[in-house]
Amino acid sequence: MKTIGVIGSGIMGSGIAQVCATAGFKVWLYDVAQEQLKKAHASVQSSLEKLASKGKLTTAQRDQAIRNLNITTQFSDLKESDFCIEAATEKKELKKKIFKNLDSLVKAEVILASNTSSIPITEIAAATKRPDKIIGMHFMNPVPLMECVEIIRAKTTSDATHKTTLELTKKLGKTPVTVKDAPGFVINRILAPMLNEAVNCLEEGLATKEDIDLAMKIGCNFPMGPLSLADFVGLDTCLYILEVMGRKPSELLKKMVAEGKLGRKTGEGFYKYGI
Ligand SMILES: NC(=O)c1ccc[n+]([C@@H]2O[C@H](COP(=O)([O-])OP(=O)(O)OC[C@H]3O[C@@H](n4cnc5c(N)ncnc54)[C@H](O)[C@@H]3O)[C@@H](O)[C@H]2O)c1
Fold first, then answer.
1. Ligand 1 pocket test: which of 29, 43, 85, 89 has the largest number of ligand atoms within 8 Å of its C-beta?
2. 115-167: per-residue pLDDT in tens?
3. Are 166 and 190 in contact (CB under 8 A)?
4. Quick one: which of 124, 172, 164, 120 has its CA closest to 148?
5. 49 plus 68 within the same structural domain
């Protein structure tokens, strides 16, 4: 396996491209939005600089990783991929379309993985003619720093696909945890309702946003408060996960998404961020 195709260059796709490029793979990072690709390239570069300045990468490793990363708006550039990881917007129909198109483009033996937070992998697999080679690879945010990757086996995923994906995850310096294909898998099944409850607490005026975050940090030893974490994940992504899981999203969460306050990526969510 030499070349990895990454589809979607947002928060997650850029991080996934970075860890693949750092692990020595040639990467094609594809997005429909040219501006987003430029942002992704700059953010990978700056993240690699930071890791090198902290001594976590040598300057040679940093430079090689940058050389390994190629950005493109041409879907056909993904053709030479030996493994694909999709990290486009969390919308079921969009993902099904991307998988159908990838299925027609790449070699028959290529495994197609989705970083979806909540969409059933079995449904995505059904959009292709290679359902045995479809799997979930749910990376955590921020990808370069977080160790866990939830590996989701669709009903149709073969043992060989599972084995290759576990090996790749380890090559990327991550620890895989295999889970069954159910809405929200394991991490978001637990995390998303918790974040939603934090928004409900704010909406009901139980405490200020700062105090809700502080209480969970010093009361539960969370490294980050739930409202800060929701901003970090993206409020649109949080909302979509809750909907897919059949949970009732907080009215405040819905309102903020409708207003385009999506968290860090748009500069404003529960908090304001310089972008
Ligand atoms: N944000 C998180 O904390 C987190 C964590 C784990 C998994 N995920 C999942 O990762 C995926 C991406 O999430 P994100 O937070 O990076 O979202 P994002 O909004 O930051 O990025 C999504 C990207 O997909 C691109 N895109 C849209 N349509 C496309 C298409 N047809 N082809 C290629 N690219 C397309 C958009 O231009 C955008 O750059 C989602 O499935 C999400 O559920 C997110």
1. 89
2. 998 899 999 999 999 999 999 999 999 999 999 999 999 999 999 999 999 99
3. no
4. 172
5. yes
> 150 and 249: one domain?
no
Which residues does ligand 1 sit against, CB inside 6 Å?
7-13, 30-33, 36, 87-90, 94, 98, 115-117, 138-139, 141, 233-234, 237, 265
Task: Kindly give the number of the ligand 1 atom that is closest to the alpha carbon of 97.
Answer: 31
Q: What is the CA(80)–ligand 1 centre distance, in A?
A: 22
Minimum-distance ligand 1 atom for the alpha carbon of 12: 16
- At position 263, the amino acid (one-letter code) is G
275 is a domain residue: no
How many domains are contained in the chain?
2
pLDDT band, very low/low/confident/very high, at 275 (cuts 50, 70, 90) = low
% of the chain surpassing 70 pLDDT: 100
pLDDT in tens, 16-48: 999 999 999 999 999 999 999 999 999 999 999
Is residue 99 within 8 A of residue 124, CB to CB? The reply is yes
Give me 142's structure tokens. Answer: 């921020």
> Amino acid identity, residue 108?
A
What was the pLDDT predicted at 118? 85
Domain residue limits at 198: 187-266
